[in-house]
Amino acid sequence: MTRRTIARFYRSVSVNERDGGFAVVLDDKPLKTPGGRLLVLPTRTLAEAIAQEWRKQDVNVEPAKMPLTGLGYAAAELVPARRNEVAEHALGYGRSDLLCYRAEAPVELVRRQAAAWDPLLDWLQERHGIAFRTGSGLGFVAQPAEGLQRAADQIAALDNFELAALDRAAGLTGSLVLGLCLLEGRLDAAAAFAAAHVDDEFQAENWGRDAEAETRRSGIRLELAAAERFVRLARA
């Protein structure tokens, strides 16, 4: 989804049934992706939420303030055209998953990482049979081929809308595990954000908060919330 701001070019926004799903209609024209593909949503609730993003635009249309629309574009255009590539991209976060890289010190950070991350890795193994290794220090932690294959199979079973949300969540957190937790309701967006920023929060408590970093983190928090809402509405 392009981030370029454009002048608002429509007056009304509605939702109509279209091609077995639901389309957002700007005046009398159904919304299309940047590549010209008709945006057909699987549920009316998701279509209405995306329509509301378009209704809220004022003089200019600001894509940066329309995260559900951006995810819809990805699900309708990017994922179908490059599904294998998107799936591999999401799986890549599992190959170097944030939750598998542990600090050696200080003791309090080691404790916090274990408390936040070990239950999620346990859940992954119990629910999906995916066992990921952890390690400390700077060395690469190679994951078992069987675990990665199970993760790949799990990703392959997702529909286009779920895969778009998973890829976004994994990218925002640096963790396939956190992306799957969010997708399956093991964590909500706030908890996934907290788990992804255990190290950052520890450093901020000890060394102070940086305004630029806090702004960046705020943006990540909002995007994770949008990914959670997107997949929930797509299934509603």
Briefly say what this structure is.
This protein has 10 helices and 8 strands. With 236 residues, the protein is of the alpha+beta class.
Task: Provide a descriptive summary of the structure in words.
Strand 3 (21-26) and strand 4 (29-30) form a beta hairpin. By secondary structure, this protein is an alpha+beta fold. Helix 1 packs across helix 2 (67-81) and helix 2 packs across helix 6 (160-173). It contains ten helices and eight strands. It has two domains: 6-81, ATP12-like (2-Layer Sandwich), CATH 3.30.2180; 83-235, ATP12-like fold (Orthogonal Bundle), CATH 1.10.3580.10. The mean pLDDT is 96.
Tags for this model:
236 residues, alpha+beta, ATP12-like, ATP12-like fold, 4-stranded antiparallel beta sheet, two-stranded antiparallel ribbon, 10 helices
Question: Which SSEs are present, and which pair or pack?
Answer:
Blueprint: E1 6-7, E2 13-18, E3 21-26, E4 29-30, E5 40-41, H1 44-55, E6 60-61, H2 67-81, H3 83-95, E7 101-102, H4 107-128, E8 135-136, H5 145-156, H6 160-173, H7 176-183, H8 189-196, H9 198-207, H10 211-235
Parallel strand pairs: 7-8
Antiparallel strand pairs: 1-6, 2-3, 3-4, 3-5
Largest sheet: 4 strands, antiparallel
Count of DSSP E strands? 8
Order of helices and strands: EEEEEHEHHEHEHHHHHH
The CATH class assignment of the largest domain is Mainly Alpha
Strand content: 5-15%
Overall shape: it is globular
